[in-house]
Amino acid sequence: MESALLGSFISAMATVLGAAPIFFIRKLSERWKDILVAFTAGIMVSASTFGLMPQAINESGVLGLTLGLLIGVVVLDLIEKNIPHIDVENDSRVSSFDSKSLLVIIALFIHNIPEGLSTGFSYASQNQGLGPMVAISIGAQNMPEGLILAVFLINSKVSKLRSFSIVFLTGLMEAVSAAVGYFTASGIGGMIGYGLAFAAGAMLFISYKELIPESHGHGFERSSTYSFILGLLIMLYISQWFG
């Protein structure tokens, strides 16, 4: 249990680590943003395909995988429709810390809940290497997200310290939801496989709906494609390392 809570917390706090460069920079180039986002997408697709989905089949069979994965996709889709994942760096409509800024923060809080659940479900699995692998993939996704949020807040006339604190709170929400996922899956027999499938569906939705399109809209598609493949391969080697 201790390793699960620690791993989930570190993964969530990767959001804070991603925000650290705001003390040195104010703007993130589109090219590097696209490369980082595509790299993250490769990591998440790899973790879902080679880690979460096979283990979900082992735990609950193909039917359990199908149901859990579809639920994960639908839940993320509903979140996306009702509270869009705003491009917080390029939303030029925001010039001050107002209701629009608050909407962005609330959206990221809600988006972090299924990500935290994914980590918690993975640590509850019988496959001891799955939890750290998913924690790494979610943490990799959190780092550019934390940086983009922090840059957005600074551009909205929020102080660097306050921006950093807000990013910390969004990461903390993910850590709390990871703990909820872990204890829920551990306490309810037969739920782990469905939870892993849910996590796979959520991660695939994030990758295909948000990360990949976002990394291919500014003229750096070739660099982003290579970055995606690199992320996928690195995560594949990590999954082999954790067994």
Automatic annotation (TrEMBL):
Q: Which residues cross the membrane?
A: 6-24, 36-56, 62-80, 101-124, 130-154, 166-185, 191-212, 224-242
Its topology with respect to the membrane?
A: Multi-pass membrane protein
> Which InterPro entries would you find in this protein's record?
ZIP
The domain of life for this entry's organism is Bacteria
Main subcellular localization, coarse class? membrane
Q: Where in the cell is it found?
A: Cell membrane
Q: Which UniProt keywords apply?
A: Cell membrane, Membrane, Transmembrane, Transmembrane helix, Zinc
Q: Does the keyword Transcription apply?
A: no
Family, according to the entry, reads as follows: Belongs to the ZIP transporter (TC 2.A.5) family.
* UniProt name for this protein: ZIP family metal transporter
